[in-house]
Amino acid sequence: MQTLPTQEHFSVDVSALPYQRNGWKKGYESQPNEYDYSIDDIEGEIPAALQGTLFRNGPGLLDINGQRLHHPFDGDGMISAIAFNNGRAHYRNRFVRTEGFIAEQAAGKILYRGVFGTQKPGGWLANAFDFKLKNIANTNVIYWGGKLLALWEAAEPYRLDPNTLNTIGIDYLDGILKEGESFAAHPRIDPSCEYNAGEPVLVNFAIKAGLSSTIIIYEFDQSGKLLRRQSRSIPGFAFIHDFVITPNYCIFFQNAVSFNPIPFAVGLRGAGECVKFEPEKPTRIVVIPRTPPTPLYQGGDKEGVQILETKAGFVFHHANAFEQDGKIYIDSICYDKLPEVEPDSDFRNVDFEALTPGQFWRFTLNLNEQTVERQQLEERCCEFPSLHPNNVGRPYRYMFTGAAHNPTGNAPLQAILKLDVTTGEQQLWSAAPKGYVSEPIFVPRPDSNQEDDGWVLTVVYDSSRHRSDVVILDGRDLNQGPVARLHLKHHIPYGLHGSWTPNVF
């Protein structure tokens, strides 16, 4: 195991105190208000060529009428849209009006159990054998096929009006999904699919977990029409949040975990609290060809599927994968173990120093020899990787990710790291000690053919003012600091994922 040589160029003093715990905690306060306004408090200048809309999703409510949720992942989805047009910007946010959101707001109390431990009032007896979960639509938001969809991996998408963010309702993708079927929150867009005449394709999946698990893969053209669907069975319980694609494969990391449903069934724990990391078991890497034997292949066998094993670890998010020299390379944020959610814990009082950080690793697969090699590319604590959209599934050079301010140890994400995966050279822009970043989104500059020629957009929580900023960085040089910093009138609670569209809504 060997790390790449690094050349660090930092625009900040990495020896400074990286964060203030009480300031970080304020970013987990609910934002019950919905806004609609032009952003006029701006430092710097919005690039005129930056035209389109940044959509963000995440839990907007961390309590229901004062009753705290046990974990932010149980919070109702709130969509933010920042539209850029001719050097100006507009902000709008709306909650996704799911059935559960409407019911709980009307009742003024928690009515549903949360996957990550939120319980209905009344103790275990009130929660026992209640398996109805609220679709919280809080994880990602994408615009594809003329539809704006809020995604939560345990249920169907909710469709929104992209101009107003008003909720239209559950979307079954023109009959592709049946009631109760899920659609994951981490689609990948193949920028040039050879099986679709070189046109882009959206690839997504769903998991049906059990003693053996089923992975369902969907591929859609730009109009939203289903091109291919395949269903593959794999042995064992599968807890999979993200995946990666190459031109020929979909690749999944089957984390080394087990699931004991009994505490959930009897009302003692949430389902997510019943997932346990098993370090003695390997991580399985499931490689599924994207070209099934026939269109809309429905087979449940493992024809063409290969499963390789590597050292146990836990992966929430991947950066990218690509094929080169007869091998498959997968770049991922990997943890030594799953950070488990305990029933008596308080996520606002997390002990960062006691947890192992997520770090950037490369896995090299040789399918012919059935081998996996691991290589650490970056030691710094990081999460939410992003890259140029044209390089998804292809060899690439630059990765942008949320990162800790200090080069070692675990800490909140306060910086944006640019990593050259070829040379190891780094650039870091930090919002420390009072700023906390979200997932960066890379937006290419129009008509540019340079991989890092574009803008990195991120939402930063400013704990000193209890408000959020939209920060625009130049992807070629993070060291120059923000090109523009758009000060919002309020804070946005820490979010999860988002996307960019060149459409101005």
Automatic annotation (TrEMBL):
Cofactor(s) named in the record: Fe(2+)
Cofactor binding annotation: Binds 1 Fe(2+) ion per subunit.
Entry's Gene Ontology molecular function annotations: carotenoid dioxygenase activity; metal ion binding
SUPFAM superfamilies the UniProt entry points to: C-terminal (heme d1) domain of cytochrome cd1-nitrite reductase (SSF51004)
GO biological process, any: carotene catabolic process
Pfam families in the cross-refs: RPE65
Keywords carried by this UniProt record: Dioxygenase, Iron, Metal-binding, Oxidoreductase
Top-rank lineage group of the source organism: Bacteria
Binding site for Fe cation: 186, 241, 317, 497
Keyword Metal-binding: yes
Record-stated family: Belongs to the carotenoid oxygenase family.
PANTHER family registered for this protein in UniProt: BETA-CAROTENE DIOXYGENASE, CAROTENOID 9,10(9',10')-CLEAVAGE DIOXYGENASE 1
Protein name: Lignostilbene-alpha,beta-dioxygenase-like enzyme
Organism encoding this protein: Allocoleopsis franciscana PCC 7113
